[in-house]
């Protein structure tokens, strides 16, 4: 392999490290994952890049080396210890069991296995221990809406015991892949400079085709993320509820979510109302959050300091602020959390789970 920067990278010491396959290496989350693998402590031996037939033969940079992309097939998993899947759910549903049958531990970022009781749902800062018990050889990460808030919430839960959760999400369009980003950029161009947003339907007429969303995403918010589910909920809203219950180990948690798409390219936000078994205080919440790995507190609203997607995008931690005790309930906290949906919301969580599995091997 030819190093991209022209500097030879010695393979010495890598031979006894686990082999990693990145499946979906060319996608939005896969691209961020390759960047993270290049930045983080290098625990991997060979890194094999896999995507569809369409991308076979392309070269992508990882750890400063150009690596050729292989087409997905059974043989790409030969000798692979860990396979990170960043592909559509139907592709993961078909191929993750194939990789597991060939001896790889699969870390899946799709929704294919998140509700499977034989597949642990893991957020390393909250329930790393769960990754060890994987009857199907597959470990899943939650969706990006849950991942935006769960690290901060898990830290508060460890102190005060969560009893009830009500959240509203503000979700970025890159979660919808290239189509979402193209829709936002195209619609912003269509409305730029015009006096729109003053009459019913004027934005809708200006943007024309609304792309992957049922309403314009420029100059608007769309209170429907996911697909229709029972009783008026969306699949995304029910997923936030179920995933939070699973990761926190609270199967009976009362939890509701309203999931909203907003005109942000990347980085989700979540407004959280969390009720606990014990009384809470803002000072203690700040201390807990400041000490929680993967969380940064940004909370001086009078000075204009609070988390926003524009400031949090491209960073690894989740950003928590606007922490308040509910005026009518001494056991309830309100807070606002932002997290990059392609980093902690996807690729970073996968990289962390993969590193847990790699560390198990080092213990053997
Ligand atoms: N984007 C987010 O914010 C986010 C957050 C959390 C979880 N996720 C989940 O992560 C997964 C990937 O999302 P993404 O946004 O990165 O999608 P994406 O940009 O559309 O990328 C999809 C990737 O899957 C590959 N792929 C598609 N069909 C394939 C097939 N039949 N065989 C082999 N490879 C195939 C593509 O390869 P080609 O380039 O060759 O087509 C590409 O590498 C999805 O399950 C998504 O739900 C995404």
UniProtKB/TrEMBL annotation:
Pfam families, alphabetized: Semialdhyde_dh, Semialdhyde_dhC
GO molecular function, one term: NADP binding
Record-annotated Semialdehyde dehydrogenase NAD-binding domain positions: 19-134
Listed transmembrane segments: none
Annotated GO biological process: diaminopimelate biosynthetic process; isoleucine biosynthetic process; lysine biosynthetic process via diaminopimelate; methionine biosynthetic process; threonine biosynthetic process
Keywords: Amino-acid biosynthesis, Diaminopimelate biosynthesis, Lysine biosynthesis, Methionine biosynthesis, NADP, Oxidoreductase, Threonine biosynthesis
Catalytic activity: L-aspartate 4-semialdehyde + phosphate + NADP(+) = 4-phospho-L-aspartate + NADPH + H(+)
Active site residues per record: 144, 268
EC number(s) recorded for this UniProt protein: 1.2.1.11
Domain of life: Bacteria
Similarity comment text for this entry: Belongs to the aspartate-semialdehyde dehydrogenase family.
PANTHER family found in the cross-reference section: ASPARTATE-SEMIALDEHYDE DEHYDROGENASE (PTHR46278:SF2), DEHYDROGENASE, PUTATIVE-RELATED (PTHR46278)
Assembly and oligomerization: Homodimer.
Stated name of the protein: Aspartate-semialdehyde dehydrogenase
Organism: Streptomyces radiopugnans
